[in-house]
Amino acid sequence: MLAAPSVPVDPGRPQTAAPRRSGPAAPPPDLLAPHLPQEPGPADAPASASTGAGAIAAAPAQPVPAGGPISAQCPACSLHPLVPVHLRQDAKTGRWRQLAPSDPPGPGVLTLDTCPVCFGVWLDQGEIDALGDADIDPAFLKTMVGRSAGRMCPRGHGFMNEHLLPGMLKTPVDRCPRCRGMWLDGDERHALARSTTKEGQEDDSVRLAKRGLIWAAQILTQLPIEVDNPDRGTPWAVYGLSALLVVAYVMSVLGVVYARTFALIAGRVAVDPVHAYTVFTHAFFHADWFHLLGNLYFLYVFGDNVEHVYGRRRFLLLYFGAGLFGGVLQLLLTRALTVPVVGASGAIAGVCGAYLVIFPRARLLQTIPFVFVQVKIPAWVYLCVWLGFQALMAVFSDAIQFAWFSHIGGFLFGMAITPLVLRSVVREVGERVRVKSAAAIFGKIPRRRGPPIVVAKAGASGTRPTASP
Ligand SMILES: [Zn+2]
Ligand SMILES: [Zn+2]
Question: Which ligand is nearest to the CA of 309?
Fold first, then answer.
């Protein structure tokens, strides 16, 4: 398509800095009209249908969204290009179901563009109409107060405006003033879903929004986008590391290798520095199955998301770097000079630290021990409690055989390098797409990252992963 960067670079004039575009991707003139109320006449449909490139087929008599496929960086998190998700309406139930990647997009298939990292979704105006089977209610739009969102329209129209939805959302939604497409953050989708339940609709301010966007939101609550993700990829680094840990453990159990040789014993290193290699090698061995499985579980839960954002090579650097850094800190600070320390906990704590920086608002499903009540906890609460627990135990506990300092060191290592990694991820993703995000243009790390990734989790909180001697 267009080779030239199609994004404005002048922050001083955000509202008028829409790039010049031409060709089939340009929206039809009727969508560019400055006034909001718009009558979707039958004459609109054939004109815009020719621009849809067959990818999007809306309900009959609805204007087809303009522009065809999107090549844009996620305007919210900037950590991934937007990925198309194909939906088809079930004729019997009226529900929208996600097609498998193998299913060819055909008639009656609606394509939404979503971010597989933050789970936000972009809705072209025609897509909102198709999902809600009506035009946006002008009365509803009057309740919105617009201001610049600092986010780019994925269609390349420059900055979007923020709109408030009083009584429904604490955070504003973003809307392009030119193509009238709408961006919903992942957590905004969930908040809208909550506020559009039967009880919520009895509220006056919510009743105002009965039509238009809210229909889209109701439909979105049925979308399995956040469950079946199109472009997450297989976390090969996580699988490979897991296999490595299992093999190392089995070999130590079988006596093929003697784990104590590779264990970190602070006193031994102090006496003979030749054993300094153990600050690295101790991370490959485990004391018992329980210890190993606990670590593997945490590696899997947090690791796949982090690997997805980091990329495989950088993820391996994070993992081994955190293991090494945790080992060094353990060596320098531990009081247990004669206790052999093994376990990948420090390396995995580094993955947790990275997760905290990338997904602070991700909600984790946690079963409270002994009470057996399931609660949703933001990742930052969960991980900060975990870190605080480690720090308290490191300073005050008599259980000096645990590798508290290794956990803390690995965790801090992951937290420290993640902003640097995110910066280059944002830049690299920006180079792969036609429409860069604002963060890529201005070289920043985006704010407001909150993917509603819900991770099933059970068992004791705040005590894992731990390393036992
Ligand atoms: Zn995103
Ligand atoms: Zn736009």
Answer: 1
